[in-house]
Amino acid sequence: MPAYREEANVAATVQDFLSTLVREGIPHAVVVVDDGSDDRTGAIIDRLAAAHPGRVIAVHHERNQGYGAAVRSGLEAALRRTGFREILLTDADCQFRAEDLVRLREKKKEERADAVIGYRRRRADPWRRRLNAKVWTILCKTLLRVPGRDVDCAYKLIDRSLLQDLRLSGEAAAISPELLCRISGDGARIVEHPVEHYPREHGEQTGARLSVVVKSLVSLAVVYGHMVRDARRLGWVRRLAAPKDPGAALVALAACVAAVVAYLYFADHGYLLAYKDANSHLLIARRVVESPTAGLAQLGGVWLPLPHLLAAPLSLWEGLYLNGFAGAFVSMASYVVAVRFLFAHARSLSGHWAGGLTAAGLFALNPNVLYLQATAMTELLLFACAVVAVHYLHEWCTEGRIRDLSLASGAVLAATLTRYEGWILCAVAAAIVAFTALRRHRRYAHTEGSLVVFGFVAGAGVLGWMAWNLAIFGDPMNWRSGEYADSSLWVAEGEANVGSLPTAMETYGLASLHNLGIATAALGLAGLVLYAVQRRLRSRALVPYAMLVFAPFFVWALYSGERPLHVKEVMGALYNVRFGLIMLIPAAVFAGYLVGRLVPRLPGRRIAAGALAGAAVVGATLAVDGAVTLDEAVEYRASGWEADNAAVSQWLREHHDGGTTLMMSFENESVTFESQVPTGSLVYEGSYRIWEEALADPHAAGVEWIYMRATPGAEDDVWEALWGTEVLDEHYDLVYDEGDRLVFRAEGGAA
Q: How many helices and strands in the chain, by DSSP H and E?
């Protein structure tokens, strides 16, 4: 029992425990610590100790040191001067009773617990003190993750073994959460039990004093630091301060800086949302959390869901949604992950850090990568997933650790939920797993086991997406054959690539070259040749070849008319040229392999390695002719189509009043996003049931604004359903008519 200025309470408190424990036949001792009281507290406990030798132990502080010091002194005396197996921590202010100790001991025995901590059933304190305690408990549980609902309840029955080697430093009220944090950190079983709490009848409470509160907060911060230092809390901070792989950590830090600088540069030039698809991705993420039919069903059935799920939480903030950062943050984080694991993978592959630095640098400083990581597109998330998957798959092929195979399968799962290229990666990775396991064990059972471990997780995304399409659209293949998935929506009739394999190969080759730059492509090709000569087709050497599969995949997609890709040399324009950027990953890896293998042949290896890696990265980066991915987006925004969209968007921003708006989203994404019409008031083709009702009779559905696109041959569904109808003529006024974009307002509305 710590006691400070408790002359009116301490004797009654001690006598209550002495008599109750005697009555119950429980061997005991009561340790009372006088914390430098300037009243008669010290004399009273000395008298009690003389009257009950061995049963009352008096401890004195010459000066007041605070509650934390008193608890430490009491615990030290209890452990040193008694041999009892259980220790109760309580106060000397008569606000607790000894009869609760009996119930706590029974609870401890029933639960086979190492400690039972009390919580006040009804706290008998003024409301201000109760409020302070509530805030304090929330703070302590947030920082230290301590057990219990009443952190500072002074009634804790603890097994001696938990306290034997305990080192406490907390001052004032911080001693209690520190104690709970330390005893709960080693797997101890701790349970709670209610105790009675009584009003203080004598003396003054010191816990609510400003000086004590400040001391407690400062001490809690110190305790938190100690917990981090001792790896009991926030272990990731220690790992961040002293990473296991300093090289990879420095590369990741440099990537963070590059990501922020690039984002600020492109933001300053107004390029963050140059891609129409960036608007679409942000709209989907926002509709998950804010739309007339908000929820996971807004994820749709064509674009895969992971990028939108990751962006949805930040999309809650309208400012982050409108400026595009909600989606760009996902790309920026993915960029950092991709750079870090490219370094690790190429270093492991080449056997030298210069190889890793070359691969990371070629990817990180590529202008096309820097632009796409600053906008709300999905490529960087796919790249990160693919690089992580390839790295851990290579580690498994080399070392055979099941942990690496599990991590690879998780990365492939994320890739399959990001872009459909991830499905190709999944199939190739599964083939590598089967081939490697069969060559390693020569037994079908082991091969089957490895495939199950990998495929159960990696394939879950593909099966899950089909199940989702079945649940939402009634067709598991809706992502492939649905209304908005047909390739004819993007591939124009007479496309040069369709049916012409040489043209498709030329188109994709040029797109890749524009994205990589001729120097990076040459370094990558040289590294590939060297790797093939040195490693051949051994099972452990197959993984780096995996990323090469995307070249024939995209060539087939162009040839079969599944996807369009235009380069100026073939089609006179740019479209989807970013599809070629994925080839930067294998090019960077093989270039890193080349540099890493050349280093041992150079004199002054450390300096030469850095110089060689730096020269390769800088030279190759300078050889990239700008950011073709940005050029494509800027050219599209400069088209007449987008000029008309920009004009009506500007008009809507100035005149729209937030009323319910009927607007088809497909091919109107620029207007939907840039008009800043609240997504909560937008009725579009993904508004479950509301869309059909609004198209049939917008007036009856309460629609106040109607937007439609009347471009000949490209009219949207709203125009098809409502143009020339009586409901439109009778209830709505045409308030905007420019460039085949029409806006109607319900009659009587001011425009």
A: 34, 12
